[in-house]
Specification:
This protein is mainly beta and about 260 residues long. It has no helices and 20 strands. The strands form six sheets. A four-stranded antiparallel sheet has the order 3-4-5-6, with no helix packed on it. It has a four-stranded antiparallel sheet with strand order 7-8-9-10, with no helix packed on it. A four-stranded antiparallel sheet has the order 11-12-13-14, with no helix packed on it.
Length: about 260
């Protein structure tokens, strides 16, 4: 389920998608869709990102033949500008492409692109926080990227565990009106998991000043990086380490 606004005062929720098709953005005249075109070995797949004109049913390929593990992420900026991120976990690099939508011709033009060392080998998330784009993956590093594709900042949000007993999964990122929301699910290795990991807790951080200061879910100001064994995180697994295996699937900012 994806809801995006590509045109002024127009927002459409698009629910059509399958295992290999994901709606990244939808508006009254068109939609941007990610298509998995090839299922490869070692979880490496090939993707296309396509703009579909809903009036003419014609398509424009924005990205093609890009190898990655997970589907692309899209972040929208004002004025019809947006950025597409797609991460190759083998090289641990993310392809960044900034584009501008021409609603008159229902087409998109590339305005900037770059390949950025991400250090990410799994799930990732992106957002727009004026005047920059943001990207974060399961390594817990928040990357601030300018509209020209330049890397402005790398900020370690979470400590990395030397013993790798705790890891980060399913990052979620929301940016709106100067407020940044960030949440990740932690996975903890436990004996009762048979050598595997159980999703253990949700780590949540919030900033109201574009990322200069951060607060946890209780409202307490937190220094970065936040320890992965932070006791005040939101537990999602029973204290006895039962078989519950849940994770955070979405994050949103609700006004009022």
């Amino acid at each position: 389920f994806d809801t995006w606004t590509l045109e002024k005062n127009v927002s459409i929720s698009a629910t059509f998608q399958s295992h290999n098709t994901k709606v990244l953005a939808a508006g009254r005249r068109g939609a941007i869709v990610s298509l998995q075109t090839l299922a490869g070995q070692d979880d490496i797949n090939e993707f296309e990102v396509v703009y579909v004109n809903l009036d003419t049913r014609r398509t424009q390929v924005l990205l093609s033949g890009v190898s990655a593990t997970n589907a692309p992420c899209l972040a929208e900026a004002p004025g019809g500008e947006f950025a597409v991120f797609i991460n190759d976990h083998r090289a641990k690099r993310v392809l960044f492409k900034a584009m501008r939508m021409n609603t008159a011709t229902a087409s998109a033009q590339v305005t900037a692109e770059n390949e950025i060392d991400s250090g990410v080998f799994g799930k990732y998330a992106c957002a727009y926080a004026s005047p920059d784009f943001l990207f974060i993956g399961n390594n817990g590093v928040l990357i601030r990227i300018g509209r020209d594709g330049s890397v402005k900042q790398r900020l370690a949000m979470f400590e990395r565990s030397d013993k790798k007993s705790v890891s980060l999964q399913y990052p979620q990122l929301v940016a709106e009106d100067g407020v940044l929301l960030l949440a990740v699910t932690t996975a903890k290795k436990l004996p009762q998991a048979g050598g595997g990991s159980i999703y253990w807790s949700i780590m949540f951080l919030r900033s109201t000043d574009q990322g200069r200061t951060w607060f946890d879910h209780s409202g307490a100001r937190r220094a970065l990086p936040l320890p992965l064994d932070y006791d005040a995180s939101l537990a999602i697994t029973p204290a006895n380490g039962g078989s519950d295996n849940n994770w955070l699937l979405g994050l949103d900012l609700v006004h009022g």
